[in-house]
Each structure stands twice: as C-alpha cells, then as structure tokens.
Write a structure and sequence with these properties.
The chain is of the alpha/beta class. It has a single domain (6-26, 39-217), classed as Rossmann fold (3-Layer(aba) Sandwich). The chain has helices at residues 16-25, 48-58, 71-77, 95-104, 108-113, 122-134, 148-156, 168-182, 193-209, and strands spanning 6-8, 67-69, 82-84, 115-118, 138-142, 160-163, 185-186, 215-217. The strands form 3 sheets. It has a 4-stranded parallel beta sheet, with helices on both faces. The two termini are 24 Å apart.
Length: 218
C-alpha cells in the first residue's frame, strides 16, 4: 500500500562531522555574546505575514526550485517521496532565501558600514553572493576549518573574509567584536527572524507544487 503523505526537503550538502566537531570543541568559558535578533529571554514571533512578505520581496533574486519525485526513496520507503531541489540555487543551498531577505531589510545607515556574519560555509556564500548583487558590503569571519573552496568563492565575490578561530563559536565572538568596533549589523544564519522568514518561503512554494493532504518533513 502506497502512502501519499511524505515530503523530503533536499536542501544543502551538510558536512555533519564538521558540525559536531565544532560543537565538541566550542569553548565552554566564553563570555555571553548577545545578539538582539535572537535573545532567548525576549523571543519574537515569526508571522505568516512576514513569510508572505519575504516570498514577494525575494522572488526576483531566488530560484523557484523544482519539487521532484525520488523514485529510489519512494521504492525504498513505500511512500511517495519528493525532493525540494534547493541545491539548484546559485550557491547550492536554501540559505540564499533568508540571506537575500535579511539584506533587503538592512537600513541605509548599516549598509554603509556593512553586514557582519560568522559562518563556515553556506550562510557566508549566500550573504556574499546577494550582497554583491545588492551592493552591500559583506564581512564574514570563517573558522579555520572552513572549506578552502568556500573561502575562495566568498573572496571572489568581493567580500571581506577573515579566517580566525578554531570553531564557529570563536569565529562568532570575533565577528561581534569587529562589528562593535567598526559598526554595521550582524546577521546570524539560524534564528534571525528575517533568515527564518526567507526559509519559510519554501513552504509557500510547496503549497503550489504539491497536492493537498501531504505531510512535510524537514
């Protein structure tokens, strides 16, 4: 019996071992780094209206990716499995959606000083690519374990790349310090509301691409 209620999102190529290594080596005695855009003591709600706004605003700079049936996974699992082909975005991941939306909302004052971020790969690529398209200076602190290919790609996109820190936690701390010294705005690649709104545009595309009644698995 075939079930028609499963969707698998194909997003980005994740180097899992690097992620867990970063967590295991993160310094435990680092001072608290405050990001007002993701303060756990003052959580903010992401509204459907904001996701709809992101959908409209990024449509000219983001690919509407195919949702393709995977016959291999469907046969293996006994369900119809579809893959949202976010790997076909220019920089290879869904991170472009949130990056573009966040950059579009940067104030004119912050644009002058530029955007700061800490990333080992896909968030950095997305910011650098869309920063170049939108004429916004991008500064990224990348940890020493970041892939050389991604460091080189970001540099060729005209971004200011600083390779420093044994892990992402240390790189983030450096990025915050430099932001405080030089000005600008910090955009994290995970729970910043504009980043989340951009990622949420995938869901609205899926509503158009798939039949009703299917369940979505991220």
């Amino acid at each position: 019996m075939w079930r028609r209620n499963v969707l698998c999102l194909k997003t980005e190529k994740v180097q899992t071992w690097r992620f867990w290594r970063s967590l295991s080596t993160a310094p435990t005695d680092s001072p608290k780094i405050f990001d007002p855009n993701c303060d756990p003591d003052n959580p903010r709600k992401l509204s459907f209206t904001e996701i709809s706004s992101a959908t409209y605003n990024i449509k000219d700079g983001i690919l509407r990716t195919e949702c393709r049936k995977s016959h291999k996974f469907s046969d293996f699992l006994g369900s119809e499995i579809f893959l949202k082909m976010e790997c076909n975005q220019v920089t290879g991941s869904f991170k472009e959606r949130g990056a573009r939306y966040a950059l579009l909302k940067v104030s004119e004052e912050d644009k002058k000083a530029g955007v700061w971020a800490a990333s080992a790969g896909n968030h950095a690529l997305a910011l650098c690519y869309h920063g170049k398209l939108l004429g916004i200076p991008i500064n990224v602190v990348m940890p020493r374990h970041a892939p050389l290919m991604k460091i080189d790609y970001c540099t060729k996109l005209g971004a200011n790349i600083i390779v420093q820190g044994k892990d992402l936690s240390a790189a983030r701390e450096t990025a915050f310090k430099l932001r405080d010294e030089k000005g600008g705005i910090y955009i994290n690649g995970y729970d910043h509301l504009d980043i989340l709104a951009g990622a949420g545009t995938i869901g609205l595309e899926l509503l158009d691409q798939l039949v009703s009644g299917m369940r979505l698995l991220g």
